[in-house]
Write a structure and sequence with these properties.
The strands form three sheets. This protein has a four-stranded mixed β-sheet. A four-stranded antiparallel β-sheet has the order 9-10-8-11. Strands 1-2-3 form a three-stranded antiparallel β-sheet, with helices on one face. It is elongated, with a radius of gyration of 29 Å. It is α+β, with helices and mostly antiparallel strands. Among the domains are: about 120 residues, no CATH class; about 80 residues, Alpha-Beta Plaits (2-Layer Sandwich), CATH 3.30.70. The protein starts with a helix and ends with a strand. The chain has seven helices and eleven strands. A hairpin with a 5-residue loop joins strand 5 and strand 6.
Amino acid sequence: MKLSPLLSEFLLANKELDLGGIGRFTIDNAGSINFEQNASIRENPVLVSYIAEKSGKMKSLIASDLDSHLELARQFLNIGKPYLFDGIGTLTKNKFGQLEFVQSNSPSEKREPIGEGRDTTSTTENSFTDYEEMFSPKKSKTSASKRIVGLVIILAGLSLAVFGGYLVYSKTKSKTKEPVTNKTEPVIIPEQQEQKIPPKDSSGTNKKDTVSLPEHPEKPIAGLNSYRFVVEQASKARALYRYALLKKSFINIQMDTKDSVLFKLYFLLPSLPADTARKRDSLQRLYSTRGKAFVELN
């Protein structure tokens, strides 16, 4: 079942369309479509009832289909791809994280058949099969999912590379430097107070065999702790759906609950206290679709 045509019809009939986690479309008196970004907007029960009536499906199934459809749209917008709602227009996220809207055609105009005159630069519901088919194990229908997985892997790889580089830099910086001894003064070995290292000659080598000082164990990085970066809190059904979606994209997400009512999806990462805010904001932009990410000490 394609939802985009029904969304366009609902907007035309009601002059207003709320899409959860995205924003609100409205039609003014001149017939122009306007968009207002608002991630706090929730599911519209009137829209669910309208689609259920048109499609003949149960409201619970429609609510799940609609949530999955909007989740997919948010994922594409978060990775920088435009998303086209047929008969409404195209949404694009700019570099400041704001959604920009360009009206494609009025919902009252006759739609062109699929494949004729479509904006190939935008992602639409018809640019891949239904979300159920996209994650289906059938090899003949996984090309779109492979592209999505590839993009997610690239983003995850870049994030891990930056994070790994930062850890190496922090570790190198925090290493204690070996004391520099005066070349003109002998170094006394702790175990043998009377044995001394002879001075070096002009060639840079000792006249006798040198004696190795005992090595000191490397000190741990001060202040480095393990934190939970929570990107979503949701009910059991929602959390299990999102957990499976991210795991199929090879993302190392984790999930737990204390009361079997509210489930947390989080990343377990080592971090210095001063870096938790930056990492939280990065994970917020990449993976949070409902609410604001937060940090907990593991």
